[in-house]
Amino acid sequence: MKYSRISCSTVALIMTFVTAAVAADAQPESAAPSVEEIVNSSNCAAYYPGDSGRADVLIVIKDDKGGERMRQATMLRVDTDPDGCTTQKSYVYFHRPADLNKTAFLVWKNPDKVDDRWLYLPALDLVKRIADSDKRTSFVGSHYFYEDVTGRNINDDIHELVETTARHFVMKNTPKDPKSVEFTEYTVWIDRSNYIPMKVEYTDRSGAVYRVYEALTVETIQGHPTATRARISDSHIKGETTITFSNIRYDVELDEKVFAERYLRNPPRKYLQ
Amino acid sequence: MCTGGMKEGAACLVIACLAVPVQAAAGDVRPQPEPEVDWALQIEGAPLIMTGFVDVRGGVRTQNDPEEDTATLAETRVQLEFFRDLDDRAYKLVVDLLADPLQEQQQVNLERGKGVLDLREASYIATLSDSVDIKAGRQILTWGTGDLIFINDMFPKDWQSFFIGRDIEYLKAPSDALKLSFFSPLVNLDVAYTPRFDTDRFIDGDRISFFNQARGKRTGDSDVLKKTIPDDWLGDDEVAVRAYRLLGSYEVALYAYDGYWKSPAGFDPKAGDAIFPELTVFGASIRGNFAGGLGNLEIGDYRSRDNSDGKNPFIRNGEYRVLAGYEREVAHELTGGIQYYLEYMKDHDNYRDNLPPGVPEADEDRHVVTVRLTQLLMHQNLELSMFAFHSPSDNDGYLRPRARYKLDDSWLLEAGANVFYGDKDYTFFGQFEKNTNVYAAMRYGF
Prior knowledge:
The structure holds 2 protein chains of 2 kinds.
Chain A: H1 10-19, H2 35-47, E1 52-62, E2 68-79, E3 88-96, E4 104-109, E5 116-121, E6 126-130, H3 146-150, E7 157-164, E8 168-175, E9 185-191, E10 197-203, E11 209-221, E12 224-234, E13 240-250, H4 261-265, H5 269-272
Antiparallel strand pairs in A: 1-2, 1-13, 2-3, 3-4, 4-5, 5-6, 7-8, 8-9, 9-10, 10-11, 11-12, 12-13
Chain B: H1 9-18, E1 20-21, E2 39-43, E3 46-61, E4 71-85, E5 89-99, E6 117-129, E7 132-139, H2 159-164, E8 175-182, E9 188-194, E10 210-212, E11 217-219, E12 227-228, E13 238-247, E14 250-260, E15 266-268, E16 273-275, E17 278-290, E18 293-304, E19 319-331, E20 334-345, H3 348-353, E21 365-377, E22 382-391, E23 396-406, E24 411-422, E25 437-445
Parallel strand pairs in B: 12-16
Antiparallel strand pairs in B: 1-2, 2-3, 3-4, 3-25, 4-5, 5-6, 6-7, 7-8, 8-9, 9-13, 10-11, 13-14, 14-17, 15-16, 17-18, 18-19, 19-20, 20-21, 21-22, 22-23, 23-24, 24-25
């Protein structure tokens, strides 16, 4: 039995899951979906495939000087809203690098109010509560922001379908509160066949595209299209981060109670291996 | 695999002998570039994971202290952590090997963490049932809501390590304990039983000079505090209990502790020894999202059982302790935290009436304010932080500036200072004034 720990970080967990699920909801070609339907389906496909999931995550962070850092983690996720794509709990258990080993991160995502976040620091046996503040802060030093990992609230932007190509719905998204973000707008290319966001371009105040998300590999896992490799490059902060998900499983019958302090201190090993 | 400029040959050898690199399972989606493989030794199908670090650290006083050496730190530490992970149970062993020429006693003392070996953890962790976990053996235990202020966390602290600039993980000293955790939808319960009292690794004059009440002045290395520690197995035991749950998204907890003051809190005038009087603590805390950040409130009732009316001048009075804290992100990658802390002496009148002549009088209220600022820069690889304690009632304080830079995923550089100030020689932080120090460290993690 070979043993592998390719996992990496919180970000990945969520992104993996993000990518997946909407295929089943895709509309026939003839009935063009509304903007709201596209946004909802894409949100569900990207962040809510299956009722739960687990994945190993590898985050590779490259700076503009050729330096490279890696984080490995395992991510667990359970959706707690049976009717839609809203509340969700996720758990990230870090393996690498050494100074993050056994560190665990827990998020209860609450789209209608602030998220609840906890961090477990094993050397101190400390369960630390983390303030849910700036969601556009780097996740574990990568080019992904917390918001990229957990999903930006779809109610935070005004959405507009600017083009329908043979393969994509092209959506322009403008923030309702421009001061809360560093971009003026972002454009998403959503795969019409499965609602997976394939590319996102962020535009800054000068009108230039400075930040790009790309789904590099999409695989269908247990019927859910999933971006198993994705990259964000950013010319403002320089460099890029690639996230790779492996050992993905959906509908893993994760008990919701795993997402609590007990399992920060005593990790749910059977789901992590 | 002993590359990257790692010079600690012994550590390298140990790793090479123990570790067997393993491959990712067939059929994985192979990431690009390939991840580093873990170190693991296969035992009956379960991996033994080894991680650790080498930490080289030095520090000096920035002023003369007639009671102590100039150097505060000059050590090379190799920490090895072995972790065997099975489905329902795990074993963890964390050992520090220490080369420390400043240490006068090289003989190993596992209780006090002296000598060439410090056993940080040797524990067995298991899930006994759906609702019961157990952790037995040497372990680090922490609970409570304060940031570097502890009211209901009655587990041992290593104040000497904290004050000389060792990594923050060394603030927590290990307990030899049995911890049982019970979980239910109504309430969760932790019970930590320590069969023989574990003191703090307290300040006694070794390496850090302090105000010695018995001498009426600062003493240090040449006149280390004499003490009598309760040390009967089962007779001198400790019990700490926490009941906790979430109310909405607020974490609420009740605490109880029965044992002893963790650092010397009394004096035996016949033997001339510092002592650890009996102590019972009851407390409560709440923590949660608050006003765009995070708020916490914690209280504790310290019942000094050997001095319940406060008339015994040789034993610390009972106290009420209160802590209120707030933390939030104040700018991009800049987090700020502020805490207010109060120690209120229960029977100050009785204490004052019975105070021997010449002994400095402590205030009824001791107020402390703390401020923390943490700025992350350069992809979070550079962390600049400042933690400040200031007591307006004692007119003293303690500053902890620190810079940490992660050169890469293995190498870390760190530099910082421990700055003590105060008007008087006998207040909590002021007594350490001559110990103000700066330190620098280099760490290789594996």
